Fold each of these.
Amino acid sequence: MMRLDEVLALTGLSRATLYRKIAAGTFPPQHKLAERCCGWRAGEVDIWLRNPISFTVADLKRDDDRDAA
């Protein structure tokens, strides 16, 4: 799991842009880890990094389907 600062450093996005992309479905959503703590799965961020221009949340499901096959 990656925390916000690590995601921002890795992607080069600003905090506002990151949350805007999450709302638009063009960046993987965060997962709640505790009451006041959330993070991103490193594998999902890696999928976004491979193709940040055309990424959609549906790409995460397609990648899961490929892993299951």
Amino acid sequence: MKNKKMAAVVKDHMDDPAGLAQRRIKTKLMNAIINYIDDKELTQSAAAEIMLVQRTRVNDVCNGRIDSMTIDALVAMTARLGLDPLETAA
């Protein structure tokens, strides 16, 4: 299913390399957050406390609402989980 989602992202931004790069970075950061939450078996509320955000923001990440997230917010959330955002997005 990830490949289908990525294919849709690529198709949406074929004429905008900057937009494609931003969506790819957001996708990688969001996936890292989701994987962390799953691996640690955290509730969205517990994850929100760690990342110092509202639970609704965690819900946005977990439900793939990529357009509602900024790269800055995702970098901060990832870092607060103890993950290296640069490695995660690479």
Amino acid sequence: MVRLLISTGEVSGDLQGGLLVSALRAEAEERGVPLEIVALGGERMRAAGATLLANTTPMGAIGLWEALPLVLPTLRVQRRVSRWLRRTPPDAVVLIDYMGANINLGLKVKRRLPGTPILYYIAPQEWAFRVGDGSSTRLIGFTDRILAIFPEEARFYGARGAQVNWVGHPLLDTLNDLPERDQARAQLGLAEHERLLLLLPASRQQELRYLLPPLAAAAAQLQRQVPGLRVMVPAGQAAFEPVLGDLLASAGLQAEVVPAETANRLRPQLYAAADLALTKSGTVNLELALRGVPQVVGYRVSRPTAWIMEHVLRFDLDHISPVNLVLGERLLPELLQNHLTAEEVLAEALPLLQSEAARQRMLEGYGRLRTALGEPGVTRRAAAAILDAVPSAPAP
């Protein structure tokens, strides 16, 4: 029996973790290796076959101020993990994104179980941002292998002495059997004259508070200016559903809130049918790009956090959206902090609904992005590398 511990957090980590768990089970079956996967993650990982030590999808925040309410829940999870490590040490540990918590876990495993392989899949995007003097990361010291999803990520860590495999981006494995646009529109009940705007503001509580008001206000103005514009708002978490309706109504927006469970199931249809998305920065930008949905990106943190990031941490980056980061250019409009206003969102969004040339420029950039992300089969390559690190799980 091979026992793996996989650790991630937030909604995007659970999405990637679920894909990886499925691939690990398939790879282990092909090798004839009994496999147990224990995870810090969410319902997608549980549905894929992992046993959850704790649900960490609600435990995500950007910034020191925003993270304060999560300190006690995080400590409780850490104590639970420590007890589990003492009772049932794993054969390998896989860390997925979730920088702060996973670095602490990696250091703990390295100290307590020094012979246990530690692999980092979807490492922190230190290749994309700079903090302070830009000195190197701590994770190289405890990680035996990094499974990089971006080519620049592989170059960054490889140049600093890490053992790296570039496996490609796992979202490439989700592109099979996508519904046709007409089929998706019919399933969503869209009339022939209607166009669909997706509002995707939040997978974290703080994002709901800071991002939804300006994005919803912009969507309301778009609805007044573009005839037949229907707005759907997939809930990032079930906990968001009770408050979304009130927030959208206060913006004067007529929109349909899609419950989180339904949104997960209908995600392919929503993306196939969409004409435009107003969204946060994150993995969702890559999902939309790979499915050909034009988008406008916004992001905002609290003023104290913004001040600390600029003046204390000296945080610096050229782009915030992973689409722009991979391409090294400003393909997607990015409206940050004080620039995230309904008026500026509207100015960027209207051409994407009214100008075929503007849409085509973005779609052409999406084609270049697709080429830069690698080839399908990503999660199986990652799963094979993980099991290769366990001596009792030989290759088939």
Amino acid sequence: MASGGNGVIGLVVNPVAGLGGSVGLKGSDGADVQRAALAKGAEPKAGRRAAQAVATLLARRPGVRLVTVAGAMGEDSARAAAVPYELVPSGVQDATTAADTRAAVAALADVDLLLFAGGDGTARDVLDAARELGGQAPPVLGIPAGVKVYSGCFALSPATAGFVAADFLARPETVEAEVVDLDEERYRRGLVSPRLYGSLRVPAGRAALSGRKAGSSDAAPATVEGIARAVAARLRPGARYVLGPGATTAAVGRELGLATTLLGVDVVEARADGGADLVAADVTEGELFELVRGRESVIVLSVIGGQGFVLGRGNQQVSPRVLDEVLGGGGGDRLVVLATQQKLAGLGGRPLLADSGDQELDRKLAGHVRVITGYRESTIYRICAASEEFYG
């Protein structure tokens, strides 16, 4: 199928990827989790993010042939993007499973580059299919759409995936990128144990890829505790504080003597005596919106090591409407970012990234933000929309 000229791009979408994020389920693997997410009001977003990627691709390279499979695993996204496409038979069923993803990848084995929308679990399925294809497997590129995106084979954002795919057809150079995933059951119990499963061939250009997540184990406990003390000292009586996931924000909960969660989003309210009360733990996006609506609130988020993401990775509960409600008229002091000096140094000067799902909102957040790095220590650091950092 692959040809010269403008080339052929394949598209596979895991339509349930990321389904559990906004409702606090910390993943979307398994039919039971997917049903629970839908029952809690979750809305599928992977198809929409795939549509953003292919729309960007076709705008940059109008003559490209886009080839995909029927229904929610690709065709629906191509239609939503209003771009021309071709279908290949894959045997995909209505209930999209890992086997369906592997079948779709096999059906698109002849393309020049395969775009896939999903998270780390989808990347594992693509890796399995690539191994079955052996030397016939095409290079791939992930469109980030999962709750957790720890693997290095994903573009920074859907738009970036489209730009990278377009550029790849002119310069078809590849590198190896790691596929990493977590055991979601252990993850929901607060046990973070990433495992390396292998690597995939992706377009060269590391700057536009998210890179493998780096852990925080190198940070001295005293440093994290100092950051927590600094946050506690800044609390404004009566204000509500949204604590995002992560070890650093969990340390803030400990400093306040509260039973917050490691991987969930929690809401606390500051008291006049300098303490705080836990308003709600491990909230969904809908619950969070109601808790901050009409209230003075502050969002406290940590940085993902090695990647630099502040929004859009593991904290989908902090949605665009929540951000609008909290930040709408409050200025920069309503977004507090936490990171150790080691974590910032690990970025090598690259900016912090926002991928909230609303590109316009991400652009509004762009600029500089104060990052608390220790007790009475902070720095001003650049933050930008993930979709625009390298192709804006």
